Amino acid sequence: xxxxxxxLLFLPCALLGRAAAADxxxxxxxxxxxxxxxxxxxxxxxxxxxxxxxxMSEATGTSAGTEKVSGLxxxxxxxxxxxxxxxxxxxxxxxxxxxxxxxxxxxSSGSLGTSSATITGFGIGPELDYYFMPAxxxxxxxxxxxxxxxxxxxxxxxxxxxxxxxxSLGKEWFVGNxxxxxxxxxxxxxxxxxxxxxxxxxxxxxxxxxxxYNQFRDPRTxxxxxxx
Length: 228
What we know:
- By secondary structure, the chain is of the alpha+beta class.
- Helices cover 16% and strands 65% of the residues.
- A hairpin with a 3-residue loop joins strand 4 and strand 5 (110-114).
């Protein structure tokens, strides 16, 4: 009798244990958030628009010292490419910065006031992005060929093309299966030479708003494909 009673107690416990194990082995039906489930993969495009601060310096080659120009600048750009691997993206990046009526200073003379000039910088080159998932934070680096032009009263002077680059850190939030909206902080540098052979160095620090289209891969689907 005691053995039968003990068996009757053990039977439902064993059945409950088998049911719990089956639940553990079964695939979860709870949908994961995009940040948890997806990796960046496939075609990629990211336009950006921002506002920043431009500072440009050029040695005059005289006792007057170094001329410095600085002011607020509007920035824009677009990167187009595709993923080399999950979360690693290679693209072609085009970007520019435009400063209108910047301030001018010259060596020990100090500020010379506001000029009526418009400074336009442009860069193009390959960009490499890496996304840190599931945070959807990315680091981007661009190596570029840059140009620089200055326009005053309808007259434009261009410096020779030179090397430059851009480094950005951004964060995006999913707004659909393929789109992400975000913000990014970036720093760009360009080294150019004017018509007189003097070197010009230009820095731009900006905060931009981004909209990224990228195909996504669910790692659960990838595991299923690998098993097949």
